[in-house]
Amino acid sequence: MNISKAIASSVGNGIADDALKDADNGIWLQTLPIATQSAWQRRFYCIRWVDRLAEQDLIVQPGGKQFPAFYQAWKRLRRQGKLTADSQHWQVLQVLAADWFQASPALHQAEIAAWDEYLAAIADYHRSPLIIDRLEDYEVMLDRLAGSCFQLLPDLPAHQRAIARQFGWVDQFYNNLRDLYEDAQQGVCYFPTEILTEFGLTRQAILDFSCLHHPGYQPLMRFWVEDYLPRLRHHHLALTQTEDLQPAWQQLTTWFSHRYRRIERVMRECEYDFVVFAQQYWPAVERDLSAQRS
């Protein structure tokens, strides 16, 4: 099973391409039955595809209108319960219509609401410039983007939805940490302004990499990884301690926890230099994935 091909990964323009990220996110699926793999692949495909569509409008073709058109087509599907003729060309909507609307839509109201929230968050946070003022605003973003995203995933009973949402916060934080270099290249900085100001830094210093030579940068990163992250992780990793998780979620939380330790380890080895980190981290991922496949 090639997760990157299954969810139509695209090759990015940075050091890390989407295919490698998606393989790292989904290699744990190879341990599961084919039917389970298929359900998760479909959901990953929808999540990643719509995120890339919004990125294309923002970065590849600034001012593009593809995501708003898709968003309106989704609203029509939700309102009418079926695809209209002018929406048939959206493959993602075909998948969602088959999964959520054709059989028993009443059974999928939680996923439908989460998808609504996820699309609204993408619309709000895929904009330029993205400026996050306060740490509280950053946490709202974690919840809206990743919290809703994790509630979209299969095999999630109702009583575990809240803690799965919280796990998403941690996952989004680690992804932001991993992608500092790639995001800066694309003009994106997720550090809240109030945190940057506290350490004498600016958003522009992150984007042009001059932060790496600023005396406040190392203290910023130590706060971010060694102080704030443990607090975030402590409050939002209840999912890993849940005894009745479905097998897919057991595998997900085990592998994702491994990924998080890898990100932290390489970041510390690079002394928080996110440019050097990007050069060293992705070869480490490739070695890790090769070992898992052998």
List the helices and strands and how they pair.
Layout: H1 3-6, H2 18-26, H3 34-60, H4 66-80, H5 91-101, H6 109-125, H7 135-150, H8 161-178, H9 180-185, H10 193-198, H11 203-207, H12 217-236, H13 247-269, H14 274-293
Helix pairs in contact: 3-5, 4-6, 6-7, 7-8, 8-12, 8-13, 13-14
General description of the model:
- Helix 3 packs across helix 5 (about 90-100), helix 7 (about 135-150) crosses helix 8 and helix 8 (about 160-180) runs parallel beside helix 13 (about 245-270).
- This protein has one domain: Farnesyl Diphosphate Synthase.
- The model is unreliable at about 5-15 (pLDDT under 50).
- About 65% of the residues lie in helices and about 0% in strands.
- It has 14 helices and no strands.
- The protein is mainly α.
- It has helices at about 5, 20-25, 35-60, 65-80, 90-100, 110-125, 135-150, 160-180, 180-185, 195-200, 205, 215-235, 245-270, 275-294.
